[in-house]
Amino acid sequence: MLRVLRTYRLGAIVWLFIAMLMAACSTTKFVPEGKYLLNKAYVKCADDKSISTSQMSNYLRQKQNTEIFGFWKLQLHIYNTAPADTTTKANKRLAINAHKMGEAPVIYDEQLTQVSMRQLEQQMNNMGYFHAKVDTQKVYKDKKINLTYLITANQPYKVRKYEVNVPSEVISTIAQNDGCKIKIGENFSVATLDQERERIATIMRNRGYFYFDKTMLEYTVDSALRTNEVDIELQFAPYVDEMDSIEQQRLHRQYTIRKVHYQIDYDPSVLPDSVKLNREVDQEGNEFSWIGKRFLSQRVLKRSCRIKPGERYAEWAVERTYARMNALAPIKYVDIAFSSVPDCDTLLDCSITVSRGKLNSIAAEVEGTYSAGDWGIAAGITYTNKNIFRGAEVLTIGGRASYEWRANGGRAIEAKAEAGLTFPS
User: Suppose 36 and one of 28, 145, 232, 347 were both cysteines; which one would form an S-S bond, judging by CB atoms 3.0 to 4.6 Å apart?
Assistant: First the structure.
């Protein structure tokens, strides 16, 4: 890698490039006859300032070309530097490169505008504005169109009553505690309902209800009150009532971890019968199995795992285990699975498969230097071992040397070495 520190020349080249693009041909160069470039697409709401128009813009199916600083369509300008005549080989190559680096003009599509209007209306309905209307305003000029979506929000619907009709005292208590996100008197919102379902399901799964899922809950919303208010009822989804008695009992049952099985650097689903597995079981109920020489110590795996034998299943423990194990340098990926224990209604077995990544690496670099009129060369090399003591310790050893020819006839030589050892947290 050669670096020449001539910043004023680099700046001149950049500004020359910008000037050339600004002077390039029209942004409508490749807009077909009878079509229009979508120059701008706005969303405005006149009667409710609480509506975030920038957030509503996310529901538009067609937007203008990418802009820099809010006005400069740099990628479109690059695209338009392509020659219109591509009959020659040189022009064809220029056109291909310009089209790869740039962005094609966004041609206005009326059908996508209609879809965008429906999307905006649907989102307004989801936010409780059941009588919202969306219209468009179009301004045509020089083969360009400025498109404005005009939202009339009208009065939002508010929550009048919230009832929980679930045949479970545990779920009912959670749904009606102080953490409930559905508030009487606040605007109705589909997003809030989904957040509340997620909150209930998370608490249930953190308390050991392994088979509980948020899709088991649904809402009935009654908006036919003629008062711009809604009544909301939480209940089980119909498919829950269709479950047999065994499945329903499992749904309302708390589970405990019987054992944790660490499968170290092998896939049990494709393991030949002829391969010999090494196995160990500790006093806590943790089982370890591996082939050949184990690349990680039991201590590191157990310290990184928040899923413990004898403890209740908890979703937070699974998420924390994923995060901590994936942070270990020698591990490439982690997979955690659970299975029911036969003939036992309240126990789960946990299997954790860990796969090793590349443990050793060497990186080298050579570069030319130029500073204050003096030329030079520098080289460096770094060796990394991501599991030096089989405990996810990272050893780094590096060295760097440089040689510089001085303009006055002298020379300068510099060399340094460094080493570091990082232990997992």
Answer: 145
Q: Which uninterrupted H or E stretch holds 347?
A: strand 347-356
33 Cβ neighbours under 8 A, 6+ residues apart? none
Alpha-carbon dihedral 65, 69, 70, 73, rounded to 10 degrees = -30
Determine the pLDDT at residue 417: 93
Angle at 67 between CA 62 and CA 70, to 5 degrees: 110
Rounded Cα gap, residues 50 and 127, in angstroms: 11
What is the pLDDT, as a whole number, of residue 20?
52
Tell which residue, 324, 384, 389, has the closest CA to residue 354: 324
Nearest to 268 by CA among 355, 353, 356: 353
Q: In this structure, how many other beta carbons lie within 10 angstroms of the beta carbon of residue 222?
A: 12
Query: What is the residue whose two structure tokens read 């300068």?
Result: 412
d(CA 298, CA 282): 10
Taking the alpha carbons at both ends of the chain, their separation in whole angstroms is: 35
3-state secondary structure of 203: helix
Give yes or no for a contact between 343 and 349, defined as CB atoms under 8 angstroms apart. Answer: no
Q: Is the pLDDT of residue 401 over 60?
A: yes
Instruction: Please say whether the beta carbons of 174 and 213 come within 8 A.
Output: no
What is the C-alpha separation between 368 and 100, in angstroms, rounded? 31
| Close Cβ partners of 355 (under 8 Å, ≥ 6 residues apart) | 265, 331, 332, 333, 334
Round to whole Å and give the CA distance between 33 and 51.
38
Q: Could you tell me the pTM of the whole model? A: 0.78
